[in-house]
Automatic annotation (TrEMBL):
InterPro entries: Cytidylate_kin, Cytidylate_kinase_dom, P-loop_NTPase. Keywords: ATP-binding, Cytoplasm, Kinase, Nucleotide-binding, Transferase. NCBIfam families: cmk. This is Cytidylate kinase. HAMAP family: Cytidyl_kinase_type1. Belongs to the cytidylate kinase family. Type 1 subfamily. It is found in: Cytoplasm. It comes from the Bacteria. Its main location: cytoplasm. Its EC number is 2.7.4.25. It comes from Streptomyces boetiae. The gene is cmk.
Length: 232
């Protein structure tokens, strides 16, 4: 049975499992995948690489039209380039992670990246039969007409433990520091004026604290399959 393209928005705070879940759901259902956080990180990487003071919102706004940010939407091999350079590794570094909330709070940055996201989402959805887009404001602002909206949550302790597990040898002090850094970024992302991190009124909230990643993936796949409509 032919089905219409499905648009899936997955939002939530840091470390709730958005990327892992979105990639797996997209791969399982044969859909495209867009990591919008990677786009804000790529913009931040470019600002830092070009000596723009990320605390100066006017300077960030004046420069944000310059970089060419290109995202690949294959969930099995997502890519991100800036002016043709592969930045998938550098955008995960500590310097970018510390600066990204300041850059993403600038309205001109959001306007530019939101436009990129909308056009990529519609092109990819048409070509691949749908797309899973993950971020902070997808269900509220970027794609408010998405067919499925999910808001993932988890306790700060669970999120910090998951992040620390990625770093071998993380101790109790490291865990506490990771927890504080996650909460600081969430507070900045939720507190900004322009398109803050928020649950859309019509999103389904999934608390992943006590769930395995596989259980979260199953839950989202079930919601997406229920929303897919046959072509008339
Ligand atoms: N339900 C789960 N149970 C255990 N570990 C999980 C679960 N979901 C995700 N993880 C692990 O938690 C870590 C963070 O997950 P992920 O990167 O998907 O989160 P995120 O919400 O995309 O984070 P960020 O917003 O910071 O990019 C990863 O190591 C992932 O494997
Ligand atoms: N839709 C989005 C997605 C992300 N951000 C900002 O980017 C930061 C990094 O996101 P990760 O998912 O890679 O951790 C995030 O902290 C936000 O500042 C955003 O504003 N909107």
């Amino acid at each position: 049975m032919a089905v219409t393209p499905v648009i899936v928005a997955i939002d939530g705070p840091s470390g709730t499992g958005k990327s892992s879940t979105s990639k797996a759901v997209a791969a399982r259902l044969g859909l495209g995948y867009l990591d919008t956080g990677a786009q804000y990180r790529a913009m931040t990487w470019w600002m830092l690489a070009n000596g723009v003071d990320v605390a100066d919102a006017a300077a960030v706004a004046a420069a944000c039209a310059k970089p060419s940010i290109v995202s690949g939407t294959d969930p099995l091999a997502p890519t991100i380039t800036v002016d043709g350079t592969d930045v998938a590794g550098p955008i995960r570094g500590r310097e970018v992670t510390s600066a990204v909330s300041a850059v993403s709070a600038v309205p001109e940055v959001r306007a530019r990246i939101t436009e990129l996201q909308r056009s990529l989402a519609s092109e990819t959805a048409a070509a691949a039969g749908g797309i899973v887009v993950e971020g902070r404001d997808i269900g509220t602002t970027v794609l408010p007409a998405a067919d499925v909206k999910i808001f993932l949550t988890a306790s700060p302790e669970a999120r910090a433990a998951r992040r620390s597990a990625e770093l071998s040898g993380a101790d109790a002090a490291g865990l506490a520091a990771t927890r504080e850094a996650l909460l600081k970024r969430d507070a900045a992302d939720s507190g900004r004026t322009a398109s803050p991190l928020a649950k859309a009124a019509d999103a389904t909230e999934v608390d992943t604290t006590e769930l395995t990643l596989e259980q979260v993936i199953e839950c989202v796949v079930t919601l997406v399959e229920a929303a897919r409509r046959p072509v008339r």
